[in-house]
Write a structure and sequence with these properties.
Two copies of one chain form a homodimer. The first copy, chain A, is of the alpha+beta class and 492 residues long. The first copy, chain A, has three domains: 292 residues, BirA Bifunctional Protein, domain 2, CATH 3.30.930; 60 residues, Herpes Virus-1 (2-Layer Sandwich), CATH 3.30.40.230; 102 residues, 3-Layer(aba) Sandwich (Rossmann fold). In chain A, the strands form seven sheets. Chain A has a nine-stranded mixed beta sheet with strand order 3-10-11-19-16-15-14-12-13. At the A-B interface, strand 2, helix 2, strand 3, strand 4 and strand 8 of A face strand 2, helix 2, strand 3, strand 4 and strand 8 of B.
Chain lengths: 492, 492
Amino acid sequence: MVSIQELATFCKKKGFIYRNAEIYGGMAGFFDLGHLGVELNNNIKQELWKRFVQAREDVVGIDGSLMSPEIVFKASGHLESFTDIMLECSKCKKKIRADEIIEEETHIDAEGKSVDDILTIIKDNKLKCPSCGGGFKEPEHFNLMFKSEVGAKEGNLAYLRPETAQSIFTNFKLVYDNARMKLPFGIAQTGKAFRNEISPRDFLFRCREFEQFEIEFFCHPDKLNDCLGYNKIKSLEFNYFDGKKQKKAKISDLKASKWHAYWLAEFYRFFLELGLSKDKLRITKHNKEKLAHYAAACFDIEYKFPFGWKEIHGNADRKQFDLTQHSKLSKNDMSIFDEETKQKIVPYVASEPSQGIGRAFLAFMFDAYDDDKKRGNIVLHLHPKLAPVKVGVFPLVNKLDKEAKAVYDMLKDEFTCIYDRSGSVGRRYARADEAGVPFCCTIDFDSQKDKSITIRDKNSTKQVRVKISEIKETVRKLLEGEKLENVGKLVK
Amino acid sequence: MVSIQELATFCKKKGFIYRNAEIYGGMAGFFDLGHLGVELNNNIKQELWKRFVQAREDVVGIDGSLMSPEIVFKASGHLESFTDIMLECSKCKKKIRADEIIEEETHIDAEGKSVDDILTIIKDNKLKCPSCGGGFKEPEHFNLMFKSEVGAKEGNLAYLRPETAQSIFTNFKLVYDNARMKLPFGIAQTGKAFRNEISPRDFLFRCREFEQFEIEFFCHPDKLNDCLGYNKIKSLEFNYFDGKKQKKAKISDLKASKWHAYWLAEFYRFFLELGLSKDKLRITKHNKEKLAHYAAACFDIEYKFPFGWKEIHGNADRKQFDLTQHSKLSKNDMSIFDEETKQKIVPYVASEPSQGIGRAFLAFMFDAYDDDKKRGNIVLHLHPKLAPVKVGVFPLVNKLDKEAKAVYDMLKDEFTCIYDRSGSVGRRYARADEAGVPFCCTIDFDSQKDKSITIRDKNSTKQVRVKISEIKETVRKLLEGEKLENVGKLVK
């Protein structure tokens, strides 16, 4: 597998990812999407939205502000609990995340451990500052939220949200009423979130500004197992890591409510169907120490990156925590009257699928990247639905520019296309391979006679001859998965 | 026309717009999009992206971080110049934007005036605090950028961007090289921006957090008039306001470079083609005092809101200002070698179309809102491309639930649908009208016999009988603008 450094270099060269403000040396944890990156990113977000919001009767979307007043995060517990324990070297003043240095030096997993536990580990292992060998000051809690002041009056504090979830909770009653929903149902949101990580790292993996797609799926607290769709996914098989070893398991083996297991399975399927390798995916369960302050249980979907198995999707049972908290602090009753049971209840979040867009992006890129020695270029095997550009259009020689442009014009309103007339056709195929373009159309000298062009499939490099008049319909079929040999005559 | 207060109430009731953190009393200038609002907003953004990025060979997109280090905004001039002049009452400490109170009390347009001019106007007109009648302290410059600190070390300042444009400039060379562009070409971006307005107002019109779609269109500085598309738009007619009176004008009447005029016309057409009333649109030119610090000239497209003619689109000639500044401060040469002229040049931004998504949203909503006394309900005449929900599916009675669900399932993967089985069909049509649903399908007792359903057109309330097997194709045609009577037999 390609290393993270090689992938980052490739992503820069091809226009997927740049460091923010790179001309000024960048700012750690902030990235910009380039001309291909923005299309891939949008495709990931749109696939999630179409599948989990628009095509479902039981989920609606919202889109909340990124900044909210302090009281929201007081209620959610983030003001008090959304912290990492930080160590500061008393000599060189370097600041480090305690669990990171502990894991690096001792291989102890210290995520979620208390300040006292951290102190003990430091003493027992005689840990020193990795930069200068100095000792550490007392460990400190460092809040990960970015703070700002709103308005001209001082002291009006607001925070950039550390997760999209909270505006789903604060708007819960409005959405429930106005979208005329009935339990169980979900509210989804795509958008940016911010975490002032002490040490951002691993490229897109741990950023300070990132995007999420989250659903809060609300149920009657007594009906966490009333899930009609469960039977369809209960036999789904996957690699399961229990904290000690990895084994095969089925969804029905998980100790989780049916709704929780259902949503976990739906996202696992999302990754599989969009092409991630099954052997590089696994499901793990959080141990109690690692659970967020609001969660009763949490599963992750992990991907095998070159830097290890890492979370690309988190899926928590958030109980009634958030709605209860917001009821208390806002003095607005967030409970609802359930028509079916005639009970007044606070809805229970049986599942919160929390999907980092950047992490999905990274997993798709690693999985797609193929340094094809035979072809002599990199081939990006992205699923056609995710491919930033769907079709390349090439005139064999510049003399055929007019004819090729006409084909480009037929396609560009429906599909994202590139038009490329520079260099040999081989060079143009290579460039398209590297951008993950699934199909390329070449207009040649025969095109005028037989009113046809050649379509080349990136994966197989096979080519087929297709009538220009049928090109739009043909591309549509190919993008939907039709086999190349079924749309025209194979070229030898 | 409906008042802004009525529209805000309607937007809340139907699930278009909520105040952020409303359960806590909200935070001025921050709004959340509800379940219909998010779809309308996404449709506006997608229409812009498809039309001005994906379907064009000469524009590519990016998507930059919302937060950038201080140096970026030092270079762009925002740190020094992106300020409003603020007045503080020496008695009650109330803070007000100077130009706002001056306009309200004296009808003098003070936007862009200097501190000295403001002082003179205050003295001449004996202006006092509108709340308590107290006098004002010395006017102060108030910077509109939200500030935050990044990382665990203190003093590492970053700002939330006040416009999307800057990451287009900082990434200019990377995009130019990696997307293999040639002058003239544009780089586009959709995303959030933030301005700490002293007094946010007029609902979505002046917010502290908002979305923009911006293009920076780069030209050779000597070729601002080499615009092939100009001939197609030069005869376009519109209402023109010259600062004193409104008259009819053509694009070719504008004193602007051809590329600048071209892009202004393209966005004017965007609004027209998506249904805004021509008589509520006009183009104005900024006078010199109102120009932003980076601009040589600027046109606005204005919409006639109930609170007056207001900018919904700004279109500036930004010269070579930003690339020159970033070259200086970053010591990275932002000039390029132009193959055609064999010259090394700093590209010139002939046009920066700057489109506020919230302002477009507001204009589309005002224009679409129709309190139809005959029907007895509000009808939202949104263009089908913008409609949050494309199709409603109703069983005439609950007994037909299974049959109706089958139709819903056929449609939901391709179109955003709602399924509604509650209340009379008339009530359901009314609800759909209010959500701007262009077409509703009703499954009735005859459906089993004739394998057909009724499609009702929101605008005309006419109905047509259509075969279930052809429903998908029919809806597709209707959404593309086909007339109702051409897709089936009109029902009397």
